[in-house]
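ok so i was messing around last nite and threw this chain in just to see what happens. nothing serious, just curious
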Amino acid sequence: MRRLLAGLVLVLAAAGSTGKVSAMKIQKPRLDLRATPRVAFSPANVLLTAELVGGDEVEEFYCPALEWSWGDGGKSVQESDCPPFEAGAELARHFSAEHGYRHAGEYEITIRLRRASRSLAMASARVNVRPGLGDISPD
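result:
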């Protein structure tokens, strides 16, 4: 009963002084990306952590495909096999991957969340790999 009353109060508050109930705007989450380490010596393994921050639990962001672009010409795609979306389903909000860089350089790493060939969100991070022992990277 309390839930019903709380929902009624929320609807009445949304109606405001006009008495008309308007649709509440759904907030989409934002995608952040962190690289660890951001500066390393070659060869280097870098851990990437992406996170959906804020926003509502909307079906559009449920079970997305992940497309990683490593900045060195390589790409990876990960698709998940998820059960159908149901009201109240929680979004996966944390994604991670690891990538190795054999040569020195500055790399921009990008992650895209996709659903049905449509880009939902994108984030990027930079990694600076400096020459390590035995690195034969061109200057």
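not much to say yet. The domain at 25-130 is CATH 2.60.40.10 (Immunoglobulin-like).
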